[in-house]
Amino acid sequence: MSLKPNKRTLICGNEIPMIGLGTFKLKNSVNSEEVYRVLDVAIESGYRLIDTASCYRNEEDIGFALEKLYVKHNIKRQDLFITSKLAPKDMGYDSAISTVAETLSKLKTTYLDLYLIHWPAKSNLSPVSTEHSGFRKETWNAFQYLFKQ
């Protein structure tokens, strides 16, 4: 059984699938192909949105699996909607830019369809720190810069 590819149009004009696969806690163990197997079944079933995050520590496993699955399922990168998220420890302009580059490399792609701030506060700061707003602004500016690339 395959899912009907229902999508919604974002304000920027891009379409996002209504159903996606969240990959929190999905990670290969030693000598395991768990990520491959899960993504294989998901793609076979019609899933076209894959959601991950740098703090899930599975981006590289997902990248390796997708590289094989594009061929197996005769799909292209543009057939999938891949989203990832910036970890709180990586808030800030330079850190956000370098983390996106790492994410792209691990996922073996040249672009992300959606990139989110996982949590709107910098890690290792007091929850009431006035520095959070500065890190959010720097991160937003980095995202704007990357979007224009």
In summary, what is this structure?
By secondary structure, the protein is α/β, with parallel strands linked by helices. The chain has a single domain (7-148), classed as TIM Barrel.
Strand content: 5-15%
| Shape annotation | globular
Give the CA-CA distance, first to last residue: 39 Å
- Biggest pleated sheet: 4 strands, parallel
Radius of gyration: 16 Å
CATH topology: TIM Barrel
The largest sheet has its strands arranged as: 3-4-5-6
Assign the CATH class: Alpha Beta
Low-confidence regions: none
Q: Fraction of residues in helices?
A: 25-40%
Count of distinct structural domains? 1
- The CATH superfamily label reads NADP-dependent oxidoreductase domain
Helix-strand pattern: EEEHEHEHEH
What is the averaged pLDDT score? 93
Tally the helices: what do you get?
A: 4
Question: Which structural class fits the helix and strand makeup?
Answer: alpha/beta
Question: How would you describe the overall organization of this protein?
Answer:
This protein is of the alpha/beta class and 149 residues long. It has a single domain (7-148), classed as Alpha-Beta Barrel (TIM Barrel), CATH 3.20.20.100. The chain is built from four helices and six strands. A four-stranded parallel sheet has the order 3-4-5-6, with helices on one face. A two-stranded antiparallel ribbon has the order 1-2. Helix 1 (34-45) links the parallel strand 3 (21-22) and strand 4 (49-51). Helix 1 (34-45) crosses helix 2 (59-72) and helix 2 (59-72) runs parallel beside helix 3. The longest helix has 18 residues, at 131-148. The relative contact order is 0.14. The model has no long low-confidence stretch (mean pLDDT 93).
